[in-house]
Write a structure and sequence with these properties.
- The protein has six helices and twelve strands.
- It is of the alpha/beta class and about 220 residues long.
- It has a single domain, classed as Rossmann fold (3-Layer(aba) Sandwich), CATH 3.40.50.2020.
- The strands form three sheets. Strands 1, 4, 5, 6, 7, 8, 9 and 10 form an eight-stranded mixed beta sheet that branches. A two-stranded antiparallel sheet has the order 2-3. It has a two-stranded antiparallel sheet with strand order 11-12.
- The longest helix has 20 residues, at about 30-50.
- It is globular and about 60 Å long.
Length: about 220
């Protein structure tokens, strides 16, 4: 697995990352969703630089112009529900992409311990396509790994990009062990150092799903 941390280089991404973390700003759910969407747009642009292209000719009012067009068949997948705004940002750029959706959630066995459950998957054929999996936060990495295994039941992609806003060092190390293939790249806006006793990211930003869509029972 290849790791690309976009925070290694300064960009306008820093502003959106600041706003989704800030307790003074993040409770504006409309702004929070839009910032996740904008981070998705930035990541989509960065990922597009690593794709394969082929030249096409386009007819203009005054002649013929050559242009390089992505030749990979892209599928954008997301893990419900927190991944939806990030997913939307990717679709703003990869607007011809197919889509896949997976539900993965923590089922707590007590106050601290939990298992990851997959309950729903909808996906096109993934064989020989470029799969982009969007998941807003990678705390332990286990839900992402299980979602990926579920998606593989729909075919074997040629390339895989995992796009997340925040990951922990624990999650990065875990995924590198579980998903070591060279055709997999993990993209993140930041890597945070710690997990607390409830496996929440520290300093993190809180519950991305609740901030985007409201609290759940």
């Amino acid at each position: 697995m290849n790791i690309l941390n976009l925070s290694d280089n300064n960009s306008i991404l820093n502003q959106f990352l600041k706003e989704i973390r800030s307790v003074e700003i993040q409770n504006d759910s409309l702004r929070f969703r839009r910032n996740l969407e904008r981070i998705g747009e930035i990541m989509a642009y960065e990922i597009s630089k690593q794709m394969d292209y082929e030249q096409e000719e386009v007819k203009t009012p005054l002649g013929i112009a050559p242009v390089n067009i992505i030749k990979e068949k892209v599928v954008v997948a997301t893990i419900l529900r927190a991944g939806l705004p990030l997913h939307h940002g990717f679709l703003n750029y990869f607007d011809k992409a197919e889509n896949a959706f997976v539900s993965a959630f923590r089922k707590y066995t007590d106050v601290v311990n939990f298992d990851i459950h997959i309950e729903y998957i909808a996906s096109p054929d993934l064989n020989n396509k470029t799969l982009i999996i969007t998941d807003t936060m990678l705390a332990t990495g286990s839900s992402l790994e299980l979602a990926y295994q579920a998606l593989l039941t729909k075919g074997k992609p040629a390339k895989v990009h995992i796009a997340t806003v925040l990951a922990t060092r624990f999650a990065v190390d875990y995924l590198m062990k579980q998903m070591p293939d060279d055709n997999i790249t993990l993209w993140t806006a930041a890597i945070d150092p710690d997990l607390n006793e409830h496996s929440y990211i520290v300093p993190g930003l809180g519950d991305a799903g609740d901030l985007a869509f409201g609290e759940k029972l």
